[in-house]
Amino acid sequence: MSQSSEFRFTFLSHDHNIDLSSAHLTAEDMGLPSDIAIECKLQTLRGGKQQGSKLITLTVGDKVLRVIPTRAMAILDASRGELRYGWDSPITEVVHPSFINQEASGGLGWLDGFNEMLVRCGYQWAGHPGEDNGDMLTLHGRIQNTPADEVVLTVEQFPPYRVTLSGRVDEKRFKFTNFEVHTELSLTPDEPYIHIQDTLTNLSNYDNTYQAIYHNNFGAPLLEEGASLHVAATQISPFNDYAVNGVHEWGQLSAPTENFDEMVFNVLPIADEEGMSHALMKNAAGDAAIEVSWAQNTLPVLTLWKNTDTIEQGYVVGIEPGTSFAYNRKHQWNLGLVPTIKGKASKVFKVRFGLLTDSESVDASVARIDALQLTPTLVSNNPLVAL
Amino acid sequence: MSQSSEFRFTFLSHDHNIDLSSAHLTAEDMGLPSDIAIECKLQTLRGGKQQGSKLITLTVGDKVLRVIPTRAMAILDASRGELRYGWDSPITEVVHPSFINQEASGGLGWLDGFNEMLVRCGYQWAGHPGEDNGDMLTLHGRIQNTPADEVVLTVEQFPPYRVTLSGRVDEKRFKFTNFEVHTELSLTPDEPYIHIQDTLTNLSNYDNTYQAIYHNNFGAPLLEEGASLHVAATQISPFNDYAVNGVHEWGQLSAPTENFDEMVFNVLPIADEEGMSHALMKNAAGDAAIEVSWAQNTLPVLTLWKNTDTIEQGYVVGIEPGTSFAYNRKHQWNLGLVPTIKGKASKVFKVRFGLLTDSESVDASVARIDALQLTPTLVSNNPLVAL
Amino acid sequence: MSQSSEFRFTFLSHDHNIDLSSAHLTAEDMGLPSDIAIECKLQTLRGGKQQGSKLITLTVGDKVLRVIPTRAMAILDASRGELRYGWDSPITEVVHPSFINQEASGGLGWLDGFNEMLVRCGYQWAGHPGEDNGDMLTLHGRIQNTPADEVVLTVEQFPPYRVTLSGRVDEKRFKFTNFEVHTELSLTPDEPYIHIQDTLTNLSNYDNTYQAIYHNNFGAPLLEEGASLHVAATQISPFNDYAVNGVHEWGQLSAPTENFDEMVFNVLPIADEEGMSHALMKNAAGDAAIEVSWAQNTLPVLTLWKNTDTIEQGYVVGIEPGTSFAYNRKHQWNLGLVPTIKGKASKVFKVRFGLLTDSESVDASVARIDALQLTPTLVSNNPLVAL
């Protein structure tokens, strides 16, 4: 029906003076055959610290994503068929950034809104709070508590009917930071994948340092006793002294465990021929998994965050590719993990989520990861950094 | 007319996707006989730092309350007949929390919005700002600058036609705090009382410490030269060295006094047979008073805050039952005033305001308080804490 | 047609319960002859950190101003005919104050929204961040990140058809600050001037200190290689050691220069017979200029801020009359530049912008400035303050 090859719909745009508080688009609205399972809704949340938060629910085939434009285009959660990917944080509200004070309690205010499946950390800095070279760095940087502009849905009008949701997020401070991030997520009805492609542009003509961590978080039902992690890696080491005790069991996941708190492992991953690294968490039965893949050229290291404490504390595992580990930036200069972005240059970050819901695809993914592991992973007992 | 025994109306609810910006409910709207003096209005405030603040004006009999859902269901002020209860703060706006930075100026940002009759302090901490065990605690905690959700009016359809206004306020920080507060205020047309019943629930399965101070504030016309305070207490002591000079006149109130600033007294109150403690401030003529009563089991101590400086500075007296005194938390561990709330447990705080507008009821209240004072109050010259 | 001598229109008023999200007033709407070039639009901005920002576009004769009620009535930019006055900050959004955390990064969060032609700094303090007498002062004070109330347009119904836009901004902290600022800008179709008249009132009955800097910023096309600054001054000195190198060329302006960063000069200006001081920046051809004039009684000193770095960094010059220089307040007590405002007293600040767009008026202004310079300016090599 449509003469255009692409349907385009703008939810929010300063430039075009568009700001929808609710919307509902069916496949037919998008010019697609009505039997194509693509649908998109926008709603504005109300009450408590959700007041003014926007939520986009995007259905593409058997996958449903919930995306938060007001929180830098984070993915709140995803599902494929019956299986939900994401986690249950004690933070149940989709907190609007105007209620977050990242400076609170020594830089921990970021934790007041932390509950998504995909959380971006960065881009001027990421990692734990604290002072570095006279800069007070708050936990995981500023981007996640920044609302997006230019929130646009595009849908290809021909198979495989790729659906793309994009938004622009600015991270700017006069004289210090002049970053613009073009975020993009895309998926098709038939594939199990969500593709993230973010482009960080340094609009300044001066070089600047940057950091990025894609804090991807997955809880139950995937996470359970007997679930396991699979990564091809040259080295895995404990983040701190506490994690030393668990480093040799880094791949084994436990039932919710009182007083476990969190164990964090630093991973040096191996990439495949296309430059992609992969990590997978599968359930105990091995018939469902999340496969996280990423382009290693800009995200060279991986943090595994085992937060398998009680359900109430937020029973969750993080699979977090990054430019850097989760240490405060001051510890990462020596590790070579504070990269530079040239003036006027861009960096592209690619992350792909495979929502695997049958044994065959889980086994195949594990096999591909195993095939990359030509020599055994060096499992170190020593943290890279003495905290 | 109504077949239900209770009228229920929701002003704000994330769960039910309700967010009214204005409303007006008459007794008839509530299914009541039209001669019952019950009425409720909601308005959204605009301009300056009031932008987005909500205000509920609730008329019940001869009492009118103004309640602020966007500030944790605070009571801005109340009146009974001609008499207004509350005070005139130099802060005249009902400040929306998104304009408050509690970390400002060493943790004093809370003061930018302080103007209500009933202000909740807590619940992770309360008291003066400063560091305790590495935590930077801002003045009087976070709850007051948190907007409520699930703001609901219920009205019983039979005498005494109890009217209840409730709201839920979350105070959460991943890994640190997982508190939910169900606030409730209720009153009837015929009684002079406003009943507050707040339930703090620790949703974590871990124990946590907490603090609460009900910072109830009353100015003119009740407060005037010759007005007086009445409390049954085992001990009254000065908060600090400055208050030593006024501790023996703790019950006497002055006209607005330049350079008085504030004198604060720490009180160990006596409870009645039902476990309620009482404090009263009456005017000079003794024909009007505020009676504050509270359940001592969860609010064991009382702070009296005499801020009888000039009108412009906010001429006001605080009658503040709490788990704790107004010191920074670091000073209260040794006093045993940093209680613990068990994982999954709840604490209920009950405070009752008696709006007394005739000599008989004032005298009767004073007599009840006096009757609790079996032995003289020990008036100490020594602050409990050396600041 | 109108029987009143003044047209009055309220865009925002708590007291009158008015909050327009858009408006468009023509000359006829204002009761003026339709050939009078006066027009006013209000819009609400959306997307990113602009969400909720208001912008008023005011056309008066050949001048167009854009004013931001949500940022203390700042002037975003102005134009006269083809010539735009203002600058291109890397901050492109009109950032809503709810997204600004002034405490961020040691008090630098103000920089996240800095992009206007007229930025008010103050009024409890202004200048660089840092601690003074135990107070943590954030960069340039709080007023600019405070939304206005009582935003009112008035238009005289007779020649010269003076148009006035006013707003009230509160800066209040219980026990510390009780300031109210009545801002007013006015202009007529025929004159090249924008008149600013701000009245700061100390509502407290106690004296307080205050500071104000009118951070007026101008970039290209006026600013260019060969542009120059003209001020009648008794003394000009470098702000810091870096500025020593440029102090003798204080009046000469460069093309955008990599790594120039900023040079700041402290100026003691000379006033004319009417108590007005004047500074002018003209373009290389001398046929366009901005003339900044101010009442010296309340704004005794002038800061010249040469930020002639690259375009991308924000190529801009500040002409900033103030009570004080840009140092942290702790350095200004000894300079006598921390004035006192008496309890219940007001201070009036007058600033006038001359938008000069032809050689004659530029030359005339330079001549008036030169005529004030009876003896040579003392150009000092020594900063007033050792930083």
TrEMBL record, chains A, B, C:
An MF annotation (GO) of this entry: carbohydrate binding
Coiled-coil positions: none
Family annotation (Pfam families): DUF4432
Protein name: DUF4432 domain-containing protein
Organism name: Marinomonas gallaica
